[in-house]
Design goal:
It is globular, with a radius of gyration of 17 Å. By secondary structure, it is mainly alpha-helical. It comes from Phenylobacterium montanum.
């Protein structure tokens, strides 16, 4: 399999870390949707990161859909989605909050980096940052003990996506991810970032 996209994207990074945790071999091709547009388009014409080229040559897009496919390939005991219905429901809730945090952070980044400063729409930024803070508050509330896992007795997708989301915001918009405001979330993400699968998939 070949994973296309830069690890500074939280969506690409969550897939890469998940592949490592599942023990699924893959080739990383870090192409930027901006700097390498034509090269990316030659593999995935929509130029959406991440894109996964399967062993069958099928190109999949969207991190959630890619992870759904990878779950079918995960060896026994390496799935990142809990089977227990209650744990599964909790996992979906947490992943939804973390993905919302990623989405709102990306919107803030694009607003600042792609729109001329004179045309920044402050009401829109205020709304988006408010949604981001609500997502982080929701994640903070879901973390009982930062030294424990969120949905079971081992790391799973809710853990991965939560840590990836927090680290992405801290890296791109540190003023919007204050560890003092979300101490359990900050401590939880810091613990996961020390794991080999995270260290081998650096954001920078």
């Amino acid at each position: 399999m070949k994973l296309i996209g830069m690890w500074d994207s939280p969506y690409v990074r969550r897939v890469a870390i998940s592949l490592r945790l599942m023990g699924l071999p893959f080739q990383a091709e870090q192409l930027s949707v901006f700097r390498n547009f034509d090269e990316f388009a030659a593999v995935s014409p929509v130029v959406k990161a991440p894109s996964l080229v399967t062993d069958e040559g099928v190109v999949l897009m969207d991190s959630t859909l890619i992870l759904e496919h990878l779950e079918r390939l995960a060896p026994a005991g390496r799935s990142l989605i809990p089977q227990d219905p209650a744990a599964h429901l909790k996992s979906l809730k947490i992943i939804g909050l973390a993905m919302a945090a990623c989405e709102k952070t990306v919107q803030v980044v694009y607003e600042h980096n792609l729109r001329p400063a004179a045309k920044l729409h402050e009401p829109w930024l205020e709304r988006v940052t408010g949604q981001l803070q609500c997502a982080f508050a929701g994640l903070e509330a879901e973390i009982g003990d930062p030294a424990a896992w969120l949905t079971g007795d081992r790391i799973q997708q809710a853990d991965v996506t939560t840590a990836v989301a927090w680290t992405f915001t801290r890296f791109t918009q540190p003023g919007l991810a204050d560890p003092a405001a979300y101490p359990k979330l900050a401590a939880f993400a810091s613990r996961l970032e020390a794991l080999p699968e995270f260290r081998d998939t650096p954001l920078e």
